[in-house]
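Hi everyone,

Forwarding the result from last night's run.
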Amino acid sequence: MQQGKGIKILVVDDEPNILQFLELGLANEGYQVKTAQDGPEAIVLAEQFNPHVVILDVMMPGMDGYEVCQTLKDMKPVAVIMLTAKEEIDDRVKGLTLGADDYMSKPFGFGELLARIQARVRNQFPHLLSEVSVGPFTIDAARKEIKYRDRALDLSPTEFELLKHLVLNHLQVLSKSVILDQVWGYDFGGEENIVEVYIRSLRDKLQDREHRVIRTIRGAGYRVDLL
């Protein structure tokens, strides 16, 4: 998978094991990755590396993550995902108030982190995702085209948005209500059954007769499997 192609990520944490784990995992996804073990090093690297996303630990000695976040946000456009062992609401509010774009508590799943990185890039640097390859899918946002196993699919605008959303969030099970909010919009006044209609159409176009590509997770929603 090359969903990270052309995207730069700076990982900041004072725990070497976490740095190594994230550096290897993110590099394997195609991201360009740099790491820093403290705040001052992170700021110097950010000036040189110009990351799109910074994964930033809160609890570091000396210059903590809150101060680093505020400094980075004052420097240049960057998406900041803060990591912390703390779960108190006040800590989350403080980070978000200082400009953090997202917040994850340790321990966290690598798949969830990938999904959050992609969400931040889509929202703040959409030009970087003009073409994204995820498993057998290639999504060309500029041309509004999706290929499956090198075969271009004949999709309506809504089908394109729905399949793109399912593929880019393939690590998650998406409920009908979430799909409606994120694809049709919060002001959509129709019924949830419209999702089933579009899923059925997508399966036909993917020749997914046995529902192995777009899976129905009973009682929860839908998930794309990268076969």
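The chain has a mean pLDDT of 88.

Cheers,
N.
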